[in-house]
Amino acid sequence: MKIYTKNGDHGQTKIIGNKTVSKSNVQVQAYGQVDELNSWVGFTSSLITAQTQILQSDLQEIQQILFDCSSDLARDTSGETPPYIFQSQFITWLEKKIDDYSPQVPAVKKFILPGGTQLAGALHVARTITRRTERTIVALQEVQPINTEVLVFINRLSDYFFIAARYANFLANQPDILYRHSKEVFRN
Predict the structure, then answer these.
(1) Residues 48, 56: contact at Cβ < 8 Å?
(2) Beta strands 20-22 and 12-14: pairing type?
(3) How far is the CA of 161 from the CAs of 7, 184, 186, in angstroms?
(4) Helix or strand run (H / E) with residue 42
(5) Which regions in the chain score pLDDT beneath 70?
(6) Which pLDDT belongs to residue 45?
């Protein structure tokens, strides 16, 4: 099989169901951003250390699930469509991970700055890519039907990345940096 087909040379692509759409279509943007997120998660997993090994299987599972999300977002919904493949139990799985890691990190009453270890920094980038992806999926939902469970998962995924970043810092004995409001520095 050739890597290049030349079918998209004029700015169009086919979605699942063989419908041709513009590559600028919000649907293509939505599943394309899920693909970008999946690639970033793959990069992020390359930053796992011996201290943070517990997160490796999470990130690999998330990559698998993101492929299901992409598939559901990439289908033609204008006619009869096959059943969605995303499974709602993935949401429950992700919530359990969040619930397991949350009590292990120090409580904070302020915002934290994204960063810390390289892994935590990459997880924060994953969180922001996830939020952008979520906004695009919401825009898609406004113009056509989607698997709403995918939207719920993506929303929860940004929460997971936030707590996973904090947990990665905790495992590496790297404290989070708390946000300092400018009024705290520039008091008269």
Answers:
(1) yes
(2) antiparallel
(3) 36, 29, 33
(4) helix 26-45
(5) 81, 184-188
(6) 98
Report yes or no: 99 and 174 within 8 Å, Cβ to Cβ.
no
What distances in angstroms separate CA 70 from CA 33, 65, 116, one per listed residue? 9, 9, 30
Task: Tell me which amino acid residue 47 is.
Answer: L
Q: What is the pLDDT of residue 185?
A: 63
Q: Which residues contact 41 (CB under 8 A, 6 or more apart)?
A: 59, 62, 63, 66, 126
**In the numeric block, which tokens belong to residue 39?**
């690639």
Q: How far apart are CA 177 and CA 161, in angstroms?
A: 17
* pTM (2 d.p.): 0.92
Whole-angstrom Cα distance, residue 35 to residue 41?
A: 10
- Specify whether the CB–CB gap between 59 and 44 falls below 8 A: yes
The full set of domain ranges for the chain reads: 13-185
What is residue 173's three-state secondary structure?
coil
Q: Which residues contact 140 (CB under 8 A, 6 or more apart)?
A: 26, 27, 29, 30, 73, 146
What is the C-alpha to C-alpha distance for residues 121 and 166, in angstroms, rounded to an integer? 10
User: Quick one: pLDDT at residue 184?
Assistant: 65
- For the structural domain made of 13-185, what CATH number should be given? 1.20.1200.10
